[in-house]
Amino acid sequence: MRDPQPLDFYFDYISPYGWIAAELVGDLARRHGRQVVWRPFLLKATVVEVMGLPPILQTPLKGAYALHDVFRLARFHGLEIAANARLNFSSLLAARATIWVARSANHLIGDFVLMLYRRHWAEGDDISDEVVVLDVGAQLGLDVAALRAGVADPVIKSEFKAAVEAAIARGVFGSPTIIVDGEMFWGSDRLSQVSAWLETGGW
Amino acid sequence: MRDPQPLDFYFDYISPYGWIAAELVGDLARRHGRQVVWRPFLLKATVVEVMGLPPILQTPLKGAYALHDVFRLARFHGLEIAANARLNFSSLLAARATIWVARSANHLIGDFVLMLYRRHWAEGDDISDEVVVLDVGAQLGLDVAALRAGVADPVIKSEFKAAVEAAIARGVFGSPTIIVDGEMFWGSDRLSQVSAWLETGGW
What we know:
The structure is a homodimer.
Chain A: E1 7-11, H1 16-31, E2 36-40, H2 43-50, H3 62-76, H4 92-104, H5 109-121, H6 130-139, H7 144-152, H8 154-169, E3 177-180, E4 183-186, H9 191-200
Parallel strand pairs in A: 1-2
Antiparallel strand pairs in A: 1-3, 3-4
Helix pairs in contact in A: 1-5, 4-5, 4-7, 4-8, 5-6
């Protein structure tokens, strides 16, 4: 018997919905004996460039709603988004750092993703700042000089670019998106269906 | 003590997510001793005109996903969208008929909404066809000649137009949207939070 496939978890650090789901997906996967593959991408590439839409917070009506909804949703799950969390920032550095950790210290990838997410959304630090990203690496005992070089390495840059293109080719557009046994679910509100899919094999 | 406020249920018949929620919201409201006020609006007015977005099915990536997701979500809730259900149609006639029923036979409004929704999405009839709308009226014992005149009545037309404008003024943009005690929830996937909000008074 082959090992069961891992869950592909696509996310952008800019998405607090992605954070909420990231906090929940680890337990969900463990309950079903699955691993999580953490796959950063850029909403800018999907939403703005491929779909031709404005960023959600700049969308009339929906922007105001989403801002209210995501704070409420976090509290619903026992989380708290920091009042000073920066809503609009470049998540490129954090994403590249994640690609580097996946290559260099893959056993720490889940911790790295959650710690970065929490620094930004729960603690209100700005993870577009290299100092913060390197500090998370240091907390995990990573080689900080290597991480710093890694995020600027053309190999890492092109690996991330290819990863974003592969996500789009697979149909991924929103954060979070979870693919389980070839079935795609978009949104933190689909986690209960991901769980049901794992339980039942689909419907 | 005042009676508790009803749940405002905003929907567009063109939205199968609205149908799924319409099937669920009645029981939810009853469990919490609430009424439902059925408020049709037009996604064309919110999404296309106010938000400046393309219709969801014409949105790259998201369109293909939504089409898959909504069939899967219906099955998840024990419903089945007819394979021949027309995805793109004018829901204006059905909406105006709903406004007429709310004025003329308000005790039947919930049945009328569900029957229209089911005719289109479960049975594959086209509710942009007046014959179908009038047939639903007949099944409910409504005065069909009056309903037929009603949907063409300038008073009904302007009442619906005002209702759409009032929805937008309230921040409504997607179908379904539920407002409970002043708190807005968008999406059939927020029903469990609507229920929790009713249970707890908010968080």
